[in-house]
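Data availability (excerpt). The following record was deposited with the supplementary files.
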Amino acid sequence: MKNFKLNFLLISIISILFRVDAQAQEFYKLQSQNSKLIIEGTSSIHDWKMEAENFNAETLLKVEGGAISEISKVEFFTPVSGLKSGKSIMDKKAYDALKEKKSPEIKFSLNKNNNVSISGAKANLTGLLTVAGKSKEVKVSANFDVENPQKFLVSGSVPIKMSDFEIDPPTAMMGTIKRVIK
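Predicted structure:
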């Protein structure tokens, strides 16, 4: 009779441990080979676009029933020197404007108080964005497309102004050419 009670107790402990593990948050890392980071903007002459050649993101979240139910950590960074426009002169001007020598990375991290709201496939996050050595709290709206608990797509955008990070926009021809807006 004692042997039966011991087996039942052991089975109960295993099922409790399994249940806790199944509901725990999981660590996810970005698959950079299948991802894109695009930065778009406007200058005094024309609209421009740069793509990050290398960047990294990690998150700690919970997926339940094919949806994100909790997000507790988001860390992102990209080296400034990895931003490419396809035009070396523009790249150099962007690196100078972003103060690449003093602040070589652009970073984002979720606020410590986990200011996150999730509604269906959409999440609104508040975090600290650091650009050109200046940090500012920003709101990020992200969409999640969960294929399965091990793989999902995330898309989102963060509108910012260069002046918010004390960045002087680069100019062409010593600032003598200005874009005329009618």
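Summary of structural features: The chain has a mean pLDDT of 78.
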